[in-house]
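Tokens for 3-isopropylmalate dehydrogenase. Go.
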Amino acid sequence: MKIALLPGDGIGPEVMDEARRVLDALRLPGLTLFEGDVGAAAYRRHGRPLPEETLKMARKVDAVLMGAVGDPSCDTLERHLRPEQAILGLRKELGLFANLRPASVFEGLEHLSPLKPNAARKLDMLIVRELTGDVYFGDKGRREAADGTHEGWDIMSYSETEVRRIAHTAFRAAKQSGQRLTSVDKANVLETSQLWRDTVIEVAKDYPDVALDHIYVDNAAMQLVRAPEQFGVVLTGNLFGDILSDLASACVGSIGLMASASLGERQTDYGTFGLYEPIHGSAPDIAGQDLANPLAMILSLAMLLRHSLGRTEEAEWVEGAVQRALAAGALGRDLGGNAGTREIGDAVLAQL
Ligand code: NAD
Ligand code: IPM
Ligand code: MN
């Protein structure tokens, strides 16, 4: 089994260190770890955010574990040189179109959520975000406008093929968990969304046992906070999924708790090839201060064990250890406590 570790920037290396300690403690036989550069760290060392060596490494392993990329000092670079291009490039080049972002409150930890306890207890959703299309990957640019000032554009588009394959991912997940499927779009305004909705309705014919509904993204944001129990599997596009998943993480308690898996179609000897990362970024405001919550990173490792290595038991051990560590009070500043990054890692290791 081979895993590539890509720590990246800001708090990325800090939370990666804790995930690595958890992985070491599992003592998986026959596991080889590789480490590669991405983001601003890679730009400084190689002159580009996603070096060829890193991409090659990602192609030869069973799974990639990524920290985060992004650095304010790079925000004025030409776009193709910015750290964020590393993660966008990996997703696109590796065909990782299905981003799974589970948001649920661990039993007994409802008090960590800003929602009313009764609503928090019922929050148990899986966001299925399309990851390699939408306005993220359309043509973009700037030009002179008719009045002599500038204008910028980014084209939003989805092909039926792209919508169909992510819809199948979401329907399969809903069928497996027995939850309803809610497709989130903006079909009242966007033609891209109308095609999205029509395609989802077509795909639904293959899944007669799955209850399906459609909701506009603005209403979805509101309903998620008001009554999250309405949602089970949530299927949505790249941009809406990005925004709704940060919102969902706040409902759980902190963005420092929310993990993700990005999957495609490639199978390995042990499961599905994937890239795993917390949904948060490099958090430059708290980097280097032992303030980052490493649990989203550690929970991303659990997803890697389950989906790419077929290690369900170990994944459950890690998730159980995280839950017990939180219950025992391993709360970082993001959750109203004062435990540091290393201290939270220690608490998980102690429970493991
Ligand atoms: P962010 O997620 O980095 O931070 C948002 C807020 O949440 C900050 O106040 C931060 O301190 C806090 N936060 C984030 N993760 C935390 C953790 N584990 N523990 C405690 N607090 C945490 O988002 P941002 O500030 O909008 O972006 C910062 C940089 O990260 C930008 O360059 C952005 O492009 C990049 N980014 C990268 C990824 C990725 O690598 N997948 C994701 C999002 C943003
Ligand atoms: C995420 C991030 C990325 C995204 C950025 C850094 C490109 O916000 O993984 O959620 O928008 O997909
Ligand atoms: Mn995001």
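The longest strand covers residues 259-267.
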